[in-house]
Amino acid sequence: MPGSVQSIERAAAILQVVAGSGGTLGVTDIAEAVGLAKTTTHSLLRTLLLVGFVEQDRATGRYALGSGLLRLGSHLDVNELRARASNWADALAARSGHAVRLATLTGEEVVVVHHVFRPDDSAQTLDVGTALSPASALGKVLFAHSHPHTGHRSGHRPTLAAAELAEVRARGWATARGEVEPGMAGIAAPVRGAGGLVVAALGISGPQSALLDPKGVPRSLVLAMVTDAAHAVSRELGHGGG
Description:
This protein is 43% helix and 19% strand. The chain has 242 residues and is of the alpha+beta class. β7 (184-192) and β8 form a beta hairpin. This is Glycerol operon regulatory protein.
């Protein structure tokens, strides 16, 4: 059998270290972690930057996994994703009393792949296949992990500031407070695949007064329901960290 390609092995080792660090390491720390010379590590990181597999925070010099890997990770079969999320999404709708949506990125579109109606008798429209605004809670979660340092603008849609995306990424959830529809709010959290990459976002939507307090902060019980459900789906997909 042919031997392994050393540069690929080294790049893989760097990606594993970067993934495990949560974006806290610079080139010197990464070089030490993988046992390579700093110049070699820097060269490999530069190549990984070019293909989008890592991204560098220009202010700190630290590296995080890039959107190129997110795109690869998001190719998880939608039917499998929906099947593994279904029970948890149903339970979330029943517990919260609100509509639940699971969304992924398709190119630059936030697309609903699973939708559970709110558990009442009102008329509702199935949103599966619908593209949502990046300003939705689901959109903010997905773009926070696909554009971690740059913010996002798509066509005539609103800009998501890099600072806002960084906050979403740091705290592990996002809210929408009337940006998409006046009086309506959303809360969403990331769903991670086996490798730790964010492959989807799970969230609920409903009247702003029901999901958020008067200061716009998510009501603690509702937020816990959303994040717990997202963690549960992540475990279903093989992400040991929840």
